[in-house]
Specification:
Helices cover about 30% and strands about 30% of the residues. The protein has about 425 residues and is α+β, with helices and mostly antiparallel strands. A five-stranded mixed β-barrel has the order 9-10-13-11-12. A five-stranded mixed β-sheet has the order 18-17-19-20-21, sandwiched between helices. A three-stranded antiparallel β-sheet has the order 4-6-5. Helix 1 crosses helix 8 and helix 2 runs antiparallel to helix 5. Bound molecules: adenosine-5'-triphosphate (ATP) and magnesium ion. The site of adenosine-5'-triphosphate (ATP) has 16 residues, from strand 8, strand 13, strand 16 and helix 8.
Length: about 425
């Protein structure tokens, strides 16, 4: 894409009404737009990052047998009454409304109820199981505080997968696979080293649920981390008994602040019982389906990446989630520089490399300041100076290396990658 055609612009100043680093940087770089507290629009550059994050998640969910679908955000009160979760005392952050034709609906906070209800239509026999179903869906939650930028929206995207298994053993085996897929997702998203498997409250038929917590002061959670073993326990269940049960030693633990980027839950038969989701096994006996749920907030993950890797005036996106693969910066407007930049852009684009080509008629200083903010990890500068030195200046911002190389060398990099 030619940067001269990009409608968004960067800003010099951070917005005054934001305290979160992720929101400040992403608004300055033109990645997001604040509609109101807790509601952000994703602009072209930001949407590319979000889509790449979703791509990684989709890839890993398909890899463990997930089937993608798309449920509705409008939800029926009658379905939710079956578990008692329509009540504001049970879920305190519902957005609800009344239909003009009569009847109440809610905006999806989560999807266990409608999906379990839907699956009763398809699951009858052991032959129909296991089933792993997921979606990327907008959730609405009337969160009390919304000061963490895209890490806590009142409207936000969630990837939620639900597992339907025949037995506790089948469930546990999948739970382990999902855990490993999550580890791969956070690795690929560039924050694996700072993200820890954390025991938390709230499992049904298992004493714990598990969260993936990324270390950052911008987080709202407190966890106790065993760095050597790379596991943690959430403050909300921290006690002598729990530590003993998890085989953790108090002296090995560090109290740290983190943000929950994902979580996995054993749901047991809580939802299948409520909806009569059963199956007939090989011996003709009727059994309840064992369920699990597995969530990740792609927007929260994107915000966490910025919190961890962003600087005051710059960002360096991990390669797999960057809005573009390469930022091609054309520094002067003479014929030779222009045709060199254009040729490189054409060749790379033909190879499927996503290139943002800064072809704008602005100063070199403005170009570099914008490139720092936008955060594409690889940069190729075409200038008279570089051409005289025999090529193009290539910067790998992650490795922090700069070299002048022939444009073929850059092209070859992407052919072999
Ligand atoms: P928290 O305790 O931080 O509010 P949660 O326990 O409510 O999180 P879940 O309901 O399990 O979270 O949602 C699954 C995932 O969705 C979370 O791990 C997180 O990544 C994401 N998520 C939850 N709430 C929000 C939000 N308000 N904005 C953005 N992402 C969110
Ligand atoms: Mg919450």
């Amino acid at each position: 894409m030619r940067q001269s055609e990009l409608f968004t612009k960067t800003r010099k100043e951070a917005p005054k009404d934001e305290t979160a680093k992720n929101a400040k940087l992403l608004i300055r770089s033109g990645f997001i737009h604040k509609e109101m507290a807790g509601a952000y629009a994703y602009l072209p550059l930001g949407y590319r990052v979000l889509q790449r994050i979703c791509g990684i998640i989709r890839d890993e969910m398909n890899g463990i047998g997930g089937q993608e679908l798309h449920l509705t955000s409008l939800q029926d009160k009658r379905v939710w009454e079956k578990t008692g979760r329509w009540s504001d005392e049970v879920i305190d952050n519902w957005f609800k409304t009344t239909l003009s034709a009569g009847g109440e609906v809610g905006l999806a906070t989560t999807h266990e109820e409608p999906l379990t209800n839907l699956m009763t239509e398809f699951i009858h026999s052991y032959k129909d199981l296991p089933a792993y179903v997921y979606q990327f869906q907008t959730k609405f939650r009337n969160e009390k505080r919304a000061k963490s930028g895209i890490m806590r929206g009142r409207e936000f995207l969630m990837k939620d997968l639900y597992s339907f298994s025949r037995s506790q053993e089948e469930h546990s085996a999948f739970y382990e696979e999902a855990k490993n897929a999550y580890i791969r997702i956070f690795d690929r998203a560039g924050i694996g080293e700072r993200t820890f498997f954390t025991s938390a409250s709230g499992g049904s038929f298992s004493p714990y649920s598990h969260e993936f917590q990324t270390l950052t002061d911008a987080g709202e959670d407190t966890i106790y981390l065993d760095r050597t073993r790379k596991i943690a326990v959430n403050d909300e269940i921290y006690s002598e008994d729990v530590l003993k049960d998890l085989g953790l030693l108090k002296d090995d633990l560090e109290k740290v602040t983190a943000v929950e980027v994902g979580n996995i839950f054993s749901l047991g038969t809580k939802f299948s019982d409520a909806f009569g989701l059963t199956y007939i096994d090989e011996t003709n006996e009727k059994r309840p389906v064992i369920m699990g749920s597995y969530g990740i907030g792609p927007g929260r993950l994107m915000g966490a990446i910025v919190e961890v890797l962003g600087g005051k005036n710059e960002m360096i996106w991990p390669k797999e989630v960057a809005p573009f693969d390469l930022h091609l910066i054309q520094l002067s407007d003479d014929e030779q520089t222009k045709s060199e930049a254009e040729a490189l852009y054409q060749k790379l684009t033909q190879l499927g490399v996503e290139v943002l080509w800064d072809d704008r008629a602005v100063s070199a200083g403005a170009k570099f300041a914008d490139a720092d903010l936008i955060g594409i990890p690889s940069r190729a500068v075409v200038s008279t100076k570089a051409l005289e030195a025999g090529g193009v200046e290539f910067t790998d911002r992650i490795e922090d290396s700069v070299e002048v190389v022939a444009s073929e060398v850059i092209i070859n990099r992407y052919v072999t990658e």
